């Protein structure tokens, strides 16, 4: 079938934390339900994090839709984006900065390497 429903009962959740050298504040825990992976270059799923702050560096293109929570994405040149429930956005390759989860945040994502 050429249709994929995001149903958490169909995939195992992956639980991770940011690498110690990237962690800036808190003790965030990531939960990821990766529903699709194509050739190691395309991914789609749901990601959730508890509060904390860490550095990010994107080599990939990522579309996101915030399902719940509040996060702050800050670029290395100081641009600040507050992300909240209902927001949709794209992070382009080359973005560097920080991701701060203020309130536990969940997002749907589609990633293209």
TrEMBL record:
SUPFAM superfamilies xrefs: RmlC-like cupins (SSF51182)
InterPro entries: RmlC-like_jellyroll (IPR014710), RmlC_Cupin_sf (IPR011051), UGlyAH_Cupin_dom (IPR008579)
Domain of life: Bacteria
One Pfam family, short name: Cupin_3
Domain (S)-ureidoglycine aminohydrolase cupin: start-end pairs: 39-109
Cited CDD domains: cupin_TM1112-like
Designated name of the protein: (S)-ureidoglycine aminohydrolase cupin domain-containing protein
